[in-house]
Amino acid sequence: MLEVSVGSSIGFDSFRWLDPVQSAPEVQATPVMTQEFALKLPPETMAAEAAGSHAQRLAAFTAAPLTVSREEGLMLYRDMTLGRRFEDKCAEMYYRGKMFGFVHLYNGQEAVATGVIKAMKAQHDWFCSTYRDHVHALSAGVPAREVMSELFGKATGCSKGRGGSMHLFSREHHLLGGYAFIGEGIPVALGAAFTSRYKRDALGDASSDSVTAAFFGDGTCNNGQFFECLNMAALWKLPILFVVENNKWAIGMAHERATSEPEIWRKAAAFGMAGEEVDGMDVLAVRAAAQRAIERARAGDGPTVLECLTYRFRGHSLADPDELRSEAEKAFWAQRDPIKALAAQLIGAGLASAEELKAIETEIDAEVADSVSFALAAPEPDPTELTRFIWAED
Amino acid sequence: MAETLLFNALRDAIDEEMARDPMVCVFGEDVGQYGGSYKVTKDLYEKYGQWRVLDTPIAENSFTGMAVGAAMTGLRPIVEGMNMGFLLLAFNQISNNMGMLRYTSGGNYTIPTVVRGPGGVGRQLGAEHSQRLEAYFHAVPGIKIVAVSTPTNAKGLMKAAIRDNNPVLFFEHVLLYNLSEELPEGDYICALDQAEVVRPGKDVTILTYSRMRHHCLKAVQQLEAEGVDVELIDLISLKPFDLETITRSIRKTHRVMVVEECMKTGGIGAELIALITEHCFDDLDARPLRLSSQDIPTPYNGALENLTIIQPHQIVKAATQLKSGSF
After folding, report:
1. Which of A101, A223, B6, B198 is the Cys-Cys partner for A183 at CB 3.0 to 4.6 Å?
2. Which chain B residues have a beta carbon less than 8 Å from that of A231?
3. What angle do CA A246, A252, A255 make, to 5 degrees?
4. How far apart are CA A154 and CA A380, in angstroms?
5. pTM of the predicted structure, to 2 decimals
C-alpha cells in the first residue's frame, strides 16, 4: 500500500496544524507570507526570514531582564570571554600544527555553557559533554592549562594526553567527560543523576542533592538514547537537565531535514516532564531557565529538557569546509553574539564600563596565552606508561 | 550441607555482597519484582528495595550506560543481560565507556561494574538467543571476561567480580543454571584470573570453558577407558588468559586442543592458539587443535543445533588422534 510521504507532499508547516500538544508555545512559527506583507515587517524580521526557520524561532525572543548583580554579570562575561578566546587560540594552534585530530569549537554557543554551568554548584553538581567540550570543561573549572595541555597531547592534560579534544575528563571538577559518539554521554549523565537519588533514597543521605547537566546537540535528539533516557529520567524523577544546544546543524544535516518535530523542547511533554525553549544567545535567559530547572531537580521534581536555540560561528570542526550554511543565516546569528549582547546590557545598565570589560578581555588573553606556553613547555606522556590507566589498580 | 543450584549460588553471592556493601546495586530487565528471568535475583527486590534492585525499561544501551555513570560517581552496579545476546544492543556502552573510559580519561575514573547473564547455545532457542558474545567482546580493552561452569565457581567468581574495581563481563550458561553441588562453607571468593585444573593428566591438554567443561568431562570418562590421560583445564578467565597454568600444562603434555562453544572464526580458541604458538611453539609435539562451533547462526532444529556445537564423541576422537599423532 502506498502512503503519503509526510516530509515531501504535506510539508512541515502544514503538519504543524495537526500538532496535538495543547500547551501552545508563546512563540509561533512565522507563517509563510507574501512578498507584499514581508516588505512591511521590520528589518530584523526580514533578516530572520532570509536566515531560515531556526532564526525565525529565535527572532521571537526579546532580551531577558537584567536580574544579575554586577559581580554575577562580570563573572558571566568573564566565563564567556574565556570560552571564546580559548577557542580562537585553539584554531590558531591547530592551523600552526600544534594540535591534531578532530577539533570542534564552541564559538557562538558560549551563553549555553556559561548560563547553565555557572548556575550550578562547582565540584558538587555533575557535567557531561560531547566532542565539543572545551568550553564546558573551562566553565566547570578545569584550568585552561590542563585543557590546552590535553589538546597538545601532553602529560599535564586533564586526561593525561590519552583523551584529546573530544575526551576531556576531570573527576576533580565533576566533568564526567566529553563523549564523541552521538548520544552516548546521556546515559552516563543519567547514571550520575541516579547516584544522587540513590544516595538520598536508598542510603538515606538527606544531603545528597547533586544535579547533573547533560549537554548535547539537535542531531542527538533523533537518537534512541535521548528518548530512552528521557523516559527513565522522568520515570524515576532523576535530578538531571537535558540541555539541548540546538545550533541547527548536525555537520551538514539541517535540523528541519532530520527531525519530524523541530521544536525539541516539546518532546519533553511526551514523557510528562518539563520542557522549555530558551534564547541560547542570551546568557541571562539561559541562566534563568537553568535556575528554574535546577530548583525543580533539587526539590525532587525531576528532569527538564532545556532547548537552547543557538548557533556555531565556525564549521562543525576545523576540518569542515562549511559549504552549506547561507551567508544570510550566518549574518543573522552573528548579530546575536552572546558576548556582545551581555556587554551592551552591562554597560547600558551601568553595571560595568567598557574599560572594565576590556580589562577582563586583557586578563583572559593573558590566561589563554599562559595556557599555551604552559602546554608547549609541558612534558610528553612517558612512553613507558603507554599501557597505564587500563586497569583501576594502575 | 545441602546442595545448591547454580542460579542460587549466584543469588547468594549477590545477596551477600549487597549486604556487605551498600553501593552494590542491580540494574536490568525484570530483575526486581519478577526476580530475574532465571531467578538469579529472586527476593532481592523485597529485601533491598526498588533503588538497589532496579527494574529497568527495555533499553539495554541506555541502562548499561547508566551503570557506567553510576559507577563513575561511586556505585557498584551489576547489570543483568536478560540474555547476553541482548547486550549486542549495549555494545557501544560496554566497549567505549566501560572498557575504554578509564584509559581515555587518563585515570580520572574507575568503572567498577559487573555485566552478567546467560549466554551460550541452549535448547532450540533460535539464533539470536544462542550467542557466544565472549568472542565478540574479546578485543575490547579494559574489561575482564570470566565464564562460570559450576555452582562453586559461580558463587566465588561473582563475589570477586563485584569486589573488583574494573568492569567484568560475567558469562553464565543458560543450560547450567540447574547444576547442583555442595558449596564450600563461609565467605569464599575465587580468583578472576586463574584457570582451574579440573583433572590432571599427562597425554593431552584440553582447554575449555563454560558448558563445554561438562562435555569434556563426559569425553574424559571414555578417554580414560581408552588409555588417554587428559589434563582438563577450565579457563575460567577468558581475558586475560591464565598463561601460567596453560603453559605449565603444555610443557608437561606437549599436546593441546581447545574445546569451545563459540564459533571458530575470531573465537576464543583462535586467540588462545595464537598465544600458545608464541609461547610454547618448541614445547609442542603436534599441531594445536580447535574444536569449535560451526561458523553459522545457530539453527532452531534440534538435530541441526547439535551438529552446530561440539559433542563429546568428537572430543574423544580428536584427543585420541592427537595422542597417537594421527592428526
Report:
1. A223
2. 57, 59
3. 35
4. 5
5. 0.93
CATH number at residue A160: 3.40.50.970
Residues of chain A with Cβ-Cβ distance to B75 below 8 Å are 191, 194-195, 198
Taking the Cβ of residue A237 and every Cβ of chain B, the question of whether any pair is shorter than 8 Å is answered with no
Domain span holding position A361? 99-374
Test A188 with B69 for CB contact under 8 angstroms. yes
Classify domain B196-324 by CATH number.
3.40.50.920
In-domain check, residue A262: yes
Domain boundaries, chain B: 3-182, 196-324
A179: closest CA of chain B, how far (Å): 9
Q: Which pLDDT score is estimated for B2?
A: 87
Rg (CA), chain A: 21
- Low pLDDT (below 50) residues in chain B: none
In CATH, the number for domain B3-182 is: 3.40.50.970
Grid coordinates in use for A108? 557562538
**Residues of chain A under the 70 pLDDT cut:** 1-44
For chain A, what percent of residues have pLDDT higher than 70?
A: 89
Per the domain annotation, does A65 fall within a domain? Answer: no
Catalytic residues of B, by residue number, are 60, 129
Please indicate if any CB of chain B lies within 8 Å of the CB of A171.
yes
Question: What mean pLDDT value characterizes chain A?
Answer: 90
* A342/A382 Cα distance (integer angstroms): 44
Judge whether A190 and B69 are in contact, CB under 8 Å.
yes
Number of structural domains in chain A: 1
For residues A284 and A305, the answer to whether their CB atoms sit within 8 Å is: no
Q: Please report, for residues A377, B207, B254, B256, B318, the alpha-carbon distance to residue B325 in angstroms, rounded to integers and kept in the order given.
A: 63, 18, 11, 12, 10
**pLDDT per position as a tens digit, B212-222:** 999 999 999 99
Beta-bridge mates of residue A306: A243, A276
Query: Do residues A215 and A277 touch, judged by C-beta distance below 8 A?
Result: no
* Contact check, Cβ <8 Å, A158/B106: yes
Q: Do residues B229 and B280 make contact, with C-beta atoms less than 8 angstroms apart? A: no
Asked, for residue A338, whether it belongs to a domain, the answer is yes
Q: What share of chain B is helix, strand, coil (3-state, %, to 5)?
A: 40, 20, 40
